[in-house]
Structures are given as C-alpha cells and as structure tokens.
Backbone:
C-alpha cells in the first residue's frame, strides 16, 4: 500500500484520493446550483408570465378533478338517493317486447335547477312522452333533469352506462353492442368531453377566454368565446370538426350583436360558402342585411 507523508503523519494514498474526489464533486454540485439559479432568474426577467387574448392559458379538462369522488361510499350512513349532494328519485323507461325489450334506468332531480348556459346536450325525462330527451328546451310542466347513475339495457345486456350531473354527462361513459363488445368509451366533465380545451385570460382561471369542445379527437359541440369582461364574444356549433349553422359574434356590451355568419347545416357540404347574414355597428344600428342587399341587386 502507498503512503504519503503529510505533517509528519503517514496517510494512505487511497484516503487522499477519496478526499479530493469528494471535494471536486461538492464544488461541481455548488457550481451547478448557482448556474441553474442564475438561468432561472434570467429567464424570469426576459420572459415574464403574461396572459392576453393572443396567448391565453389553456387548461385541459382531462386534468380536472372528477366529481365522482364526491359520492363514493363512506363509512358513515350513506343516502342511496343522494348524488353530488342533491336528492334524486328513481325512474325508468321501457320499450319493446320479450328479449327485445330495451330498458333505461336513471335518477332525476326532485327539485328544478338552473342548467348550464353553455353546454349543448342536456338530458331530461319527459313524463308525458315517457322518454329520455336530449335537448336544452326542457318542458317545465312535464320535464325533470337527469342526475346520478344511468344504464340502458337490452334484456340483461348493458348497452350504455354512465352518470349525469344536472342533466349533463359526467365521468366515464361506455357504449356496447348486444354482443357485449365495446363500441365507444368517453370521459366527460360536467357536460364537456374531457378532451375539450378551456382557455383563460389569467393564470388564476377566473376570466375564461374560450371553450373548444373536443370529442374523439374532433371539435364537436357548442363553441364559446368570451370578452375579458365575461360577456360572450362569439358562439356557434361544431359537428365532425366543422362549423355548422349560424355563428354569432357580440360586442363587449350586454347581448349586443356584431354579426351573424351562416355556415352549412350539413358538416360535409364542401360546396357551401359561408356568408354574413347581418351586421351591426357598436351602437346597435343595422349596417348590412344580406336579404335586403340581395333584393336591391335583383331590383337593379
């Protein structure tokens, strides 16, 4: 074994080697921390966090916390008819005969609630027609909002299963065929497919800028854009990744329209050319009407 004489003492060379190696590692680690801190400070100074209309903060609903945890069974007494803190009643529909009988089992709210003003698909039960309806136009006399577990069966075979939150699909939904083969599986968050994107003006997510509905990789559902004041800036509908129907733009004033734009009713109509139906100035004065303009051209 090699020894080095230091201060009149013999120290093994291996111990010296280990000592200097540890010193070098500590120095390098210290330099790394200092360099990283300097880089972070420089980045903060050069690129401070800003959120504006052109560079909004985007939130993926896939990362949002599910409400399903709110009604998971607890050790205490569980009320079987309460979901998400709201009391419900049991309902069902049935059509067909024998082995072809299709039965829907669901829960509905005992008292009326305000529906989400932006979600396109609201599910409710019509007492008069004895069927579940998907529509925002709810009959207050015969309609009740679905809320809680839902299952649709053909005989004993489950065809569709999921849960509703105030008339909106929420959580995991599955559909199967009569041979128990999975046809579709989709996750929702309070009526919005979880792949949807929500954009905000601010990092605190208090001022929404845009809601882009996305389902199965395509834009599908109601689209909304908002002014920073919170008022609606634009709204319309997507079907199969295409704009359909009438889209409306608004000024940053209470429900004051800016223009109406017509898109094809059929999302696969490639020959249709979108056009402006009507347009107003910021005072609410009509400055263009396609119907009147067309009549003027015919008259000439």
Residues:
């Amino acid at each position: 074994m090699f020894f080095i004489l230091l201060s009149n003492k013999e120290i093994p060379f291996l111990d010296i080697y280990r000592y200097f190696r540890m010193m070098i590692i500590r120095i390098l680690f210290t330099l790394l921390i200092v360099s990283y801190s300097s880089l972070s400070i420089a980045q903060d100074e050069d690129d401070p966090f800003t959120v504006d209309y052109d560079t909004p903060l985007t939130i993926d609903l896939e990362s949002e916390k599910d409400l399903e945890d709110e009604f998971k069974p607890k050790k205490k007494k569980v009320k079987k008819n309460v979901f998400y803190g709201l009391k419900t009643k049991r309902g069902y529909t049935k059509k067909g005969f024998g082995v072809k009988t299709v039965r829907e089992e669901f829960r509905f709210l005992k008292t009326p609630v305000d529906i989400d003003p932006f979600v396109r698909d609201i599910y409710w039960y019509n007492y008069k027609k004895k069927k579940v309806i998907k529509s925002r136009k709810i009959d207050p006399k015969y309609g009740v909002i679905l809320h809680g577990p839902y299952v649709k069966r053909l005989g004993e075979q489950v065809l569709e299963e999921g849960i509703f939150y105030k008339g909106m699909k929420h959580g995991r939904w599955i559909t199967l065929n009569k041979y128990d083969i999975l046809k579709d599986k989709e996750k929702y968050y309070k009526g919005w497919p979880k792949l949807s994107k929500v954009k905000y003006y601010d990092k605190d997510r208090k001022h929404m800028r845009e809601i882009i509905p996305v389902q199965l990789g395509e834009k599908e559902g109601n689209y909304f854009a908002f002014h920073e004041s919170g008022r609606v800036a634009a709204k319309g509908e997507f079907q199969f990744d295409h704009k359909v129907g009438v889209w409306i733009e608004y000024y940053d004033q209470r429900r004051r329209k800016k223009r109406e734009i017509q898109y094809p009713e059929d999302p696969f109509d490639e020959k249709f050319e979108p056009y402006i139906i009507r347009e107003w100035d910021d005072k609410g004065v009509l400055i263009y009407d396609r119907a009147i303009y067309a009549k003027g051209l015919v008259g000439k």
In short: DSSP finds two helices and 23 strands in the chain.
